[in-house]
Amino acid sequence: MEYGDHYGQVQRPKYDCLLFDLDDTLYPLSSGLALGCRKNIEDYMIEKLGIDKSRIPDLCNLLYKNYGTTMAGLRAIGYDFNYDEYHSFVHGRLPYENLKPDPVLRSLLQSLHIRKVIFTNADKVHAAKVLSILGLEDCFEGIICFETLNPIHKSTASDDEDDIEFVGSRTAPSTTTSSNEIFDIIGHFSQPNAGSELPKTPIVCKPSEHAIERALNVASINPNRTLFFEDSVRNIQSGKRVCLDTVLIGTSHRTKGADYALESIHNIREALPELWETDKISEVSYSGKVPVETSVTA
């Protein structure tokens, strides 16, 4: 009898990396942070950028729809502002007290012996604070955040031990041509045939496929062996286009682009038990051959 026939064909685990969004994925939408973030963005636009309050709803909708984030859209249409100041204003006043330690999720993550990485559009200060409050700060190998994909203030890796960005990126800082003119995106879309190309943003962020590909490259992640957890359908669909397997969080309805759909991140074990089966090792010896790892194909 052949060795392979006797012991069964040895297969690699399907995934060697789990890529997690942060906000409204590792904690529920009901926490109210998303609502607070939206209000803070609107307040920033009014107080810091001098945008008329009556224009805010339509402007936010168009910027988010066309650029992925309001911040990216604001930069695209001509507003210039300090990124750190923006993040401090938008995230610094969030109701973090609504978040609580999550020992259940912590236990689940710690029992998963697969590489785990955070990928968020938020800045590193916000990401670190959320993970700390949830009690998950040591559950991930690293964090891909705004600063990782938009290294405006530096072009080399940081030697700061407290820097939670992925190091190793040598991407040149993004630049944009300064202009005093603000592109009227509301007026643009009010035209019957709004076909001209929109101005581009210097900000790299989800759901851009380029952003996801850059994140994977920075962290040396193979998309073909990675499972991507997200609450955003747009981000899920972009992830699918770059060959990630995807898990939509916050609903049990599996939409286009989602391989799985979970009401809560807490449902991960019942929905994806195969992630834990990668730990099964068969210590089998045959004719002096070394033991082989066995696993279940997902």
Automatic annotation (TrEMBL):
InterPro entries: HAD-like_sf, HAD_sf, Pyr-5-nucltdase. Gene3D superfamilies: 1.10.150.450, HAD superfamily/HAD-like. SUPFAM superfamilies: HAD-like. It comes from the Eukaryota. PANTHER family: HALOACID DEHALOGENASE-LIKE HYDROLASE, HALOACID DEHALOGENASE-LIKE HYDROLASE (HAD) SUPERFAMILY PROTEIN. This is Uncharacterized protein. The lineage of its organism: Eukaryota, Viridiplantae, Streptophyta, Embryophyta, Tracheophyta.
